[in-house]
Structure formats: structure tokens, C-alpha cells
């Protein structure tokens, strides 16, 4: 495979950007080799600057559930751009997208748009502290909620991928108010409540962990969190930036029938453009300025390009038949990978919820960060490179989720499974 242009561009990029990239995992350091520079995306495919085509299971790290450059989304963005790219004032588009989100997620009674998932979680936690008049929060090891100071404590995603400790630059005073429990371990949460009674403002959780690879909640875990937080007058925040419209069209909260107090969103609701949102119970959201004293603002929040793209994307996945098809396709891929590994005698553990999936190179079922980090990163890197050579673009990390779009057909899944079989055959 010729990637000469990518090699040349990466050399230049390293003189301009730290590590040659603008987000760490893109550098391929966890899997070795040369990061690819992409020229365009079309449906389920990426095309690099050297003209190579790849079946894409990264999908911009989750937002592109409609695939690349879906005509309806592109048209919506084009029409919006002709009317102006940003107003700095309210527009009807914000109302339309908000109503669409609330249709899927009725637990959200009021919503505020921001520009990224990090902004959404930062704002939701500030709101939780304002509402409860408490300062401490609980997060879970291996879960990533954006790069805000208070959340870069035992985080997943790129922090886990690169093997980084808690990030330098995070003040110890800030980190001290972030308590860390073990994912899928209610006893560890109970212990923190006992240690810090009447001090915890919120528990924030990825209801399906997607930033240490896909790790579903064990039966009773989310229900237990809901019970504990209610008991201690603490807010339960579901970080559905990744899982929203991915594990179920109504998010994990609908799939598992749990009612969080606040929800954070991003990725899919922007149709591929930068976006974030936080919302929840009206009583809590009424504390947000200008209605209440909790201040949060954003120059480009609710911009018409993003709102239009989000409206178009959600309209494309609204139908029940669409979700049945997505589930069917994802299930076929999961089964195919599993069968290929079995035939080749390669020990793997698979995890999938809805359109999110991960293949762990491990003999132990991942249930939390302690079991996830035992997965064989060297084997994954080997697998990644073989798949890339066969024209399949996976997340360049053992600790990241893969994604399916409505453009991934049975034929594309079959080609992917063939590539997996070939990869394991030459193991």
C-alpha cells in the first residue's frame, strides 16, 4: 500500500503540531506505524491522500451514524450556510433540534447547547455543584468525560491509550474534589459516600463505558447508582456524549430504563459538526443563567450549521426500521469476528451495545478498568495494522470503541469479516 503522501504530510505536521496531530490518539503511537492523512469521506468509506480506500469504523469517533457526507446532512449544511454561518442570537433551528432530542430522551425537560462534549460535562458538573451546594464529585476509573481539569483523573480514552498518568497542569486542589470509584462496582461507590457524607454533588458515569473500549454495565449497577444518589441527595449525571443515539435511539437511559438527573450529549446530535449539550430536570436547569445564577456561555453555541446538521441526522435515524437494521448489521459483524477468532484459536473478548463495539485481545471478560487494561495491546496493534493493510480503518487503540453507520451494508460487513479472517489466518 502506497502512503507516501501521508508520510510526507506527517513529517511536515510534526513541525507544526505537538506530535503532528490535533488530538493525541490520531498519532498511531499505541499501534505503531504511520498515521494516515484523509482527503475525503463518502458513506462508510475514508479515502486517504494517496488514493487508498478504507471501510471506516471510527466514523469521526462516533458522530457519523449517517456515514460520511450523507446527502441530506450535506444539503442541510449548505442551505444553512447560505443564510449565514453564525448569528450570535437565537434561531428557530435551536428549538427544532431541542424538540427532536427531547422526543428521543423525555428525561430531558430543558436543554442548553454548547460546542463540545467537554463543555457539556464541565457545565453539567458546575450546575450540579450550584444546585446541591456541594463540591465533590464521583467519577469512575477508565471513564473519560472530556479534558477539563477535574475530569482528568484516572481517565480513559487517549489518556489510557498513551499510558499517561493524571495530566500535568491539573491543580492538586482541583483533583482533590474528584473521587474515583471502580466501574461496575457499587461497593466502591458506597465507600466514597461513607467517607464523604453530605459532600458529594454528583456521580457522573458513562452508562456504557466507551472510552476504555466498550464495557457494558453489569445487571444492577446503574440501578444501584440511581438508588444511592437518590438516597444521598446527590445528582446522577449520565454522560451520553458517546452513547446517546448509539446504544439505543433513546440513549442508554432508555435502553436500561434509568432516569438520570442530568444528561450530557454531543457527537451524533451535531451531524458531524462540533457540538455538545447538557439537559435534564427543569428544576435543576432553571439554575442556568440568565434564568438562574449558574453562569455558562458560548459564542458559537447553537450555531445554525450545527443545528441544521443535527436536525437532518436525527431525522435519518428516527424510524424503528432503521434501528432494527443497525442492530442487525452490528450483530453480524460481532458474530463474524467471533467466528474468525474461534477458527484461528485467537483468544478475544467481544463487547457490543447497539452500534458500539470493541474486540479485546484478552482471555478475561472486561468489566472495568482493572480487567480492561490487562488486554494485550501488542496483539491489538498487530491486528490493527493487518486490518489497515486490508482496507479496514479501526480505532488506533485497544481502548477505544468502534462504530457502525446506516451506510454499512451487509456486503461491507462481509468484506470486513473476510479481512478479519485473513488477519487471524496469518497470525
Describe the 3D structure.
With 427 residues, this protein is of the alpha/beta class. The protein folds into two domains: 4-69 and 319-425, Aspartate Aminotransferase, domain 1; 71-316, Aspartate Aminotransferase, domain 2 (3-Layer(aba) Sandwich), CATH 3.40.640.10. It has 15 helices and 14 strands. The protein has a seven-stranded mixed sheet, with helices on both faces. The chain has a four-stranded mixed sheet with strand order 1-2-3-13. β2 and β3 (53-56) form a beta hairpin. α2 runs antiparallel to α11. The radius of gyration is 21 Å and the shape is globular.
Topology:
Elements: H1 4-13, E1 38-42, E2 45-48, E3 53-56, H2 71-82, H3 92-104, E4 110-114, H4 117-132, E5 136-140, H5 157-161, H6 172-175, E6 178-181, H7 186-195, E7 200-205, H8 221-231, E8 235-239, H9 251-255, E9 262-266, E10 276-280, H10 282-285, H11 304-316, H12 320-344, E11 349-353, E12 356-360, H13 369-372, H14 377-389, E13 392-393, E14 402-403, H15 410-425
CATH class of the largest domain: Alpha Beta
Number of domains: 2
Q: Beta-strand percentage?
A: 5-15%
Strand order of the largest sheet: 4-10-9-8-7-5-6
Poorly predicted ranges (pLDDT <50, ≥5 residues)? 160-165
Assign the structural class, choosing from mainly alpha, mainly beta, alpha/beta, alpha+beta, or little secondary structure: alpha/beta
Number of helical elements: 15
**What is the average of the pLDDT values?**
94
What is the CATH superfamily of the largest domain? Type I PLP-dependent aspartate aminotransferase-like (Major domain)
CATH-level-2 architecture of the largest domain: 3-Layer(aba) Sandwich
Q: Roughly how many Å apart are the termini?
A: 19 Å
Q: Which fold name corresponds to the CATH topology of the largest domain?
A: Aspartate Aminotransferase, domain 2
Name the shape in a single word.
globular
Q: Describe the sheet with the most strands.
A: 7 strands, mixed
Total beta strands: 14
SSE arrangement, N to C? HEEEHHEHEHHEHEHEHEEHHHEEHHEEH
Round the Cα radius of gyration to an integer and report it. Answer: 21 Å
Helix content: 25-40%
Amino acid at each position: 500500500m502506497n502512503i507516501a503522501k501521508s508520510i510526507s504530510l506527517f513529517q511536515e505536521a510534526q513541525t507544526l503540531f505537538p506530535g503532528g496531530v490535533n488530538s493525541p490518539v490520531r498519532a498511531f503511537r499505541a499501534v505503531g506505524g504511520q498515521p494516515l492523512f484523509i482527503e475525503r469521506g463518502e458513506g462508510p468509506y475514508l479515502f486517504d491522500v494517496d488514493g487508498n480506500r478504507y471501510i471506516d469504523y471510527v466514523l469521526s469517533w462516533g458522530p457519523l451514524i449517517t456515514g460520511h457526507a450523507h446527502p441530506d446532512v450535506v444539503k442541510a449544511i449548505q442551505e444553512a450556510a447560505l443564510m449565514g454561518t453564525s448569528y450570535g442570537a437565537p434561531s428557530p433551528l435551536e428549538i427544532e433540534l431541542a424538540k427532536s432530542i427531547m422526543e428521543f430522551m423525555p428525561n430531558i425537560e430543558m436543554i442548553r447547547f454548547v460546542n463540545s462534549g467537554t463543555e457539556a460535562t464541565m457545565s453539567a458538573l458546575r450546575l450540579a455543584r450550584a444546585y446541591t451546594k456541594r463540591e465533590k464529585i464521583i467519577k469512575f476509573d477508565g471513564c473519560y468525560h472530556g479534558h477539563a481539569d477535574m475530569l482528568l483523573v484516572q481517565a480513559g480514552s487517549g489518556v489510557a491509550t498513551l499510558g499517561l498518568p493524571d495530566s500535568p497542569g491539573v491543580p492538586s486542589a482541583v483533583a482533590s474534589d474528584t473521587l474515583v470509584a471502580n466501574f461496575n462496582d457499587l461497593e466502591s461507590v458506597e465507600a466514597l459516600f461513607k467517607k464523604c457524607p453530605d459532600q458529594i454533588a454528583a456521580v457522573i458515569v458513562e452508562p456504557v463505558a466507551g472510552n476504555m473500549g466498550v464495557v457494558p454495565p453489569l445487571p444492577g449497577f446503574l440501578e444501584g447508582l440511581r438508588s444511592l444518589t437518590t438516597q444521598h441527595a446527590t445528582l446522577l449525571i449520565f454522560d451520553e456524549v458517546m452513547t446517546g443515539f448509539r446504544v439505543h435511539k433513546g440513549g442508554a437511559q432508555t435502553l436500561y430504563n434509568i432516569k438520570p438527573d442530568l444528561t450530557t450529549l454531543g457527537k451524533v446530535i451535531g451531524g458531524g459538526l462540533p457540538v455538545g449539550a447538557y439537559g435534564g430536570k427543569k428544576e435543576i436547569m432553571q439554575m442556568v443563567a440568565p434564568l438562574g445564577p449558574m453562569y455558562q456561555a458560548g459564542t458559537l453555541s447553537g450555531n445554525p450549521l450545527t443545528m441544521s446538521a443535527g436536525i437532518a441526522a436525527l431525522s435519518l435515524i428516527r424510524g424503528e426500521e432503521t434501528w432494527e437494521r443497525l442492530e442487525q448489521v452490528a450483530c453480524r459483524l460481532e458474530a463474524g469476528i467471533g467466528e474468525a477468532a474461534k477458527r484461528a484459536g485467537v483468544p478475544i473478548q467481544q463487547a457490543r451495545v447497539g452500534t458500539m463495539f470493541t474486540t479485546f485481545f484478552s482471555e478475561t471478560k472486561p468489566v472495568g478498568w482493572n480487567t480492561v487494561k490487562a488486554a494485550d495491546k501488542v496483539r491489538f496493534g498487530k491486528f490493527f495494522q493487518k486490518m489497515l493493510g486490508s482496507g479496514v480503518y479501526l480505532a488506533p487503540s485497544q481502548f477505544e470503541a468502534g462504530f457502525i453507520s446506516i451506510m454499512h451494508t451487509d456486503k461491507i460487513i462481509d468484506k470486513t469479516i473476510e479481512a478479519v479472517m485473513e488477519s487471524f489466518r496469518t497470525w
